[in-house]
Amino acid sequence: MPYATHPPDERAAMLDEVGIDDPAELFDIPDAVRFTGEYGIDAHSERDARARVGSVLDESTELTEFLGGGHYDHYVPSVVDHLSLRSEFLTSYTQYQPEIAQGFLQALFEFQSLVVELTGMDVANASMYDRSTALGEAALLASRVRGADGDTVLVPDSLPERVRSVLENYTNGPGIAVERYPTTDGTADVDALESLVGDDTLLVYAATPNDYGLLEPELDAIGALAHDADALFCVGSDAVALSVLEPPATAGADIVVGDASVLGMGTTYGMGLGIFAAREEYLRQLPGRLVGASEDDSGNRAYTLTLQTREQHIRRERATSNICSNQAWVALRASIHAAWLGPRGLIDLAEECVAGVDELCARLDGVEGVTAPVYEGAHFREVAVETDAPAAVVAGRLREEGFALRTRSDGGDGAEGEDGSEDDDESDDEYLVVCVTDTNRDAVDDLADALASVSEVSE
Amino acid sequence: MSRQAGEEAPEERPMAREPPYRQARWFDDGRNEPLLSEKSPDSVDVETSLPDELTRDTLELPALREPEVARHYTRLSQMNYGIESGPFPLGSCTMKYNPKFTEDVAARPSAQLHPLRADEDQQGALRLQAELQEMLASIGGMDAVTLQPPAGAAGEFTGILVAKAYHEANGDEERSEVIVPASAHGTNFASAAMAGYDVVELPSGEDGRVDLDALAAAVSDETALLMLTNPNTLGVFERDIEEIADIVHGVGGLLYYDGANLNALLGQARPGDMGFDVMHFNLHKTFATPHGGGGPGQGPIGVVDDLTEFLPSPQVRASDDGTYERYEPASSIGGVHEYSGNWLVLVKAYAYILRHGDEGLENASETAVLNANYLATQIDYDIPYEPFHHEFVASADADAADVAKRMLDYGVHPPTTKWPEIVPEALMTEPTETETKDRLDELAAAFNAVAAESEETIADAPNTTASGHIDQATAARNPVLSWHSLESSTHD
Q: Which residue blocks in B379-482 are alpha helix, DSSP H?
């Protein structure tokens, strides 16, 4: 192996210094637990390993994806790869020695600043794994802040099952219950929510856009309900949508979570970049890493990890979270992408998501047997579409035409068949949820044509 | 093996390069490289077809053209130190060189796909995961592996939840304690607490290992888990691991393996064979994916048979017809990440393992342990606990934090400092297998040069980095966490 082998003379000199003949003598492992077998993994030359991984990956089908569902494909400018792959960034570690890590610290400080600007909140951390774990951490923060007062988190029934499941794992420890409030016509049923919010409510969560791609029209009212019950209000969104949406702070959000992997990552099989922003009063309750501006001994500005007494390596079981490795490099990529776009570019990208959905609806609604959108309201990036034929059947036929779409049922029962596979429950109340961004917008016409032919066959 | 401070030194020691090593520093008017917001602030009116009441009026962010973006981040990179800048012997972090080809593999178009595709349309991604699970199960001596957790600590949390579900399924709901050695990683304590357990701290024995009597006294019907890394954070192997396992299993508890130090064991020992029931792997340490300034990592967990039905969902397996599919284990705890964690890390780890194979992995551990032991013979510091494997904890005569700052001036990254706390002024050092003898000699020379320097010289460091010594206490007293609050604090 060229990465880790000493040439014979070097190895001999080292063994000599240590005073042994064979490195095997250095392993202080009792015979009873020594491994004498084989893993059975063959070594490959670099060329062969590269070819082998390539051939495995190439077994996935080439498809035009209209999938979305929390993981969105936006064009990533080349400059993101070129800069983030600079080895001083890529091969560095957590900035425990800030004097020699100013570059990454500043990039993370700028990421925090980006999140503060997008959310309107006072403070943001330097990344969580993804939006689902960020929501889990929000529930834990609420639990710490509220103490024993309250043990219920309220989430909309449109929250994808896979996100709610993560939240439930995070709330398992303190015994917090995750309960759903209903949506009507795709957005929060505020009256129904009002009857559910009470003294036991720790946190009320609302997403905008939600899993149907709808913007939540009554965020303020939801926030007021939460605050009336002395509960925290948490809003979920993502970096591109927040570029044009009213900052959640304005609607009274105490915490904003979401994903920023929409910048800088493209379609990487769900790799996330959780954002977590909060009001100033919760600063010392934040999970994860924080980068602060300070000064060095010459009085020059310098950056450092700060408020580390919240963190696991110092506070241990009393830490605000167990986060150690996080998504620092992904945050760097998002920051570079945002810097490249600038405010105008971000707004344009967001507007493309809005215009793309409008265009998509106009095209698809013209197809016989298709209704788009199912729910009226302002859409961002994706939309629920109803078909006369069962959605799963339509998705399956579209797949044969080279398009990947997901299906989901109405909120309420928690059931979801969203991977577009044909063996899903083919119930009548399922929709196609179609996502359009800058990267697939020019395939909308083809999708509409395919949908027309598929619908005819289905009839 | 290692020498005590003050013993005779071998002859012909290489001299440390004289400081100054110079890290680039882009500097402008009392600031390092200005913030993007200081270079080109912009405030744009938001015009969109969305309803006014849902949208913001303005967006204030920097506006730069690509050349200026490229210069900004290039300058920042030059003010940052990575493993390709020089040695980076941060104990417990396993900062080793990573083969470059894994980046190219992860950048393939066929690696870029959406996780909500139907199984039949992501056969490549599923096969890679199934094969990686199998390889990791073999390496860990485990019966099944889930790849989902997006970091080592997330793996700990997942593993503990799986163990908790197992106990609950056995009607063992009153088990409320997780035992953790005092010297364990902070994440162990935090993960156990997050999962709702009380943490029982286990003091180290005189030899730095688990004290069997103390363990026997700590376990009870309340014990859900003992969390252990082996070799432990001193680099010392827990030789009594079989007895430890017997004690924990004897009261119905489970044994958890913290995979942070697995780099020392490849080809030598397997957690499953030592009696561990659940473990996590740090793909970004043992199987080399670049650490990216603190992440992404990936923390798959392995479990023995009794625990497999509780693994997170979805799991990946080969089906009877030779294709790959996702499924939900019978009593799954559910999800621990919205999708499958950090996919690109999985791709890189898979490529790394294929490249190395059995022989290469074993060689990596052997070389890592040789390098640590060789380095220890070359430095003038006391190393109180031995024999050690891939890392050792040296004890400095001066304040370890000051020693670390001064080492920066010699162009090497210092070890982890002041931890574990059982060693006074600890310098926890892990050179890894990818350093050559020359680099190890250079590292030793830096250690030794600092040891010979005056208190004043050390306290004055660093002098050659992008920034001088930073007062972290002040940063915490007056937190300034964004350019927005920097502006207001400057105006104060």
A: 400-408, 437-451, 455-459, 472-477
Question: What's chain A's length in residues?
Answer: 459
Q: Are B90 and B407 in contact (CB under 8 A)?
A: no
Smallest CA–CA distance from B335 into chain A, residue: A166
Facing residues of A50 across strands?
none
The answer to whether residue A146 scores a pLDDT higher than 80 is yes
Distance between A198 CA and the closest CA of chain B, angstroms: 24
DSSP state of B382: B
**Residue B300 corresponds to which tokens in the numbers above?**
């798959």
A173 touches chain B (CB under 8 A): yes
State whether residue B399 is helix, strand or coil: coil
Q: Do B482 and A44 touch (CB under 8 A)?
A: no
In B317-394, alpha helices (H): 343-378
Report CB contact under 8 Å: A102, B42: no
The C-alpha of B346 sits at a distance from chain A's nearest C-alpha, in angstroms, of: 11
Do the chains contact at A311 and B186, CB–CB below 8 Å? yes
CB B181, CB B210: distance < 8 Å: yes
CB contact under 8 Å between A165 and B334, yes or no, is yes
SS3 content of chain B, % helix, strand, coil (to 5): 40, 15, 50
Give the bridge partners for B326, in sequence order: B316
CB atoms within 10 A of CB B361: 26
Residue A422 confidence (pLDDT): 39
The answer to whether the CB of A185 falls within 8 A of the CB of A384 is: no
Structure token pair of residue B362: 């074993």
Taking the C-alpha atoms of residue A445 and residue A456, their distance in angstroms, rounded to an integer, is 17
A258: enclosing H helix or E strand = strand A255-259
Residues 386-425 of A with CB under 8 A from B: 399, 404, 406, 418-422
Chain B environment of A289 (Cβ under 8 Å): 294
Q: What is the ipTM of this complex?
A: 0.96
Cβ separation B291–A312 shorter than 8 A: no
pLDDT in tens, B317-372: 999 999 999 999 999 999 999 999 999 999 999 999 999 999 999 999 999 999 99
Which residues on B lie below 8 Å from A305 (Cβ)?
472
Q: What are the residues whose beta carbons fall under 8 Å from the beta carbon of A3, sequence distance 6 or more?
A: B97, B99, B364, B433, B434
Distance (Å) of CA A53 to CA A59, A80, A392, B127, B346: 10, 24, 32, 10, 11
Chain A positions touching B164 (Cβ under 8 A) are 172
